[in-house]
Amino acid sequence: MPRRGSLAVVHRRTLYADGPEVSEISCTTFSVNEGWDAEENDESIAALHAAIDAGVNFVDTAHVHGEGHSERVIGSVLRERPETVHIATKVPPANRLWPAPGGIPVVDAFPKGHIRAHTERSLGDLGVEALDLQQLHVWNREWLGGDWQQEVADLRAEGLIRAFGVVVNNHDPGSAVGLVRSGLIDTVATIYDIFDQSPEDELFAACREHGVGVIARMPLDNGGLVGHLEPDSTFPEGDWRRAYFRGDRPAQVCARVDSIVAELAIPTTALAETAIRYVLSAPEVATVTVGMRRPAAVPLNAPTADGRGLPAVQVALLKKHRWDRNFHT
Question: How far is CA 206 from each of CA 12, 177, 201, rounded to the nearest angstrom?
Answer without folding.
Answer: 22, 6, 10
